[in-house]
Design goal:
By secondary structure, the chain is of the alpha/beta class. It has four helices and six strands. The strands form two sheets. It has a three-stranded mixed beta sheet. Strands 4-5-6 form a three-stranded mixed beta sheet.
Amino acid sequence: MRVVNLAQCPPPSVRPDATVLEAVRIMERANVGAAAVMQDGDLVGVVSERDVMLRVVAARLDPETTPVSAVMTKGVKTVRPDCEADEALAVMVSNHIRHVLLVNDRGSVVGLASSRDLFQAQVESLGDQVHTLEAYAGNDNRGG
């Protein structure tokens, strides 16, 4: 399955000069754990729940005054929307990240995929395969 079928499209986004509190509220409304950080249509970073926890809460910064640019992750890992979900999951696992942004050929951010959604899709796929194998193994008719 293609990652774009499992991603939130379009992804939630926030400006780098927005406060961390604004970013958290955007993520909450979208029911996701990360948001693309966009400036003038360009991807400049990603802010995640983990960034908030480690770089704001643990550092005792004020989320109402701290700009996203101070705590966002730069050097964002991205995948193409047409890549397979297992490829995107491999990128996440190898880079120890929980979210990946989908960027098309024109450089536009078109989606956000979470490891939770990709793992869930794999679990469902494996369940379907088990049912198929059970049906095949249970077919004891001649020629079946």
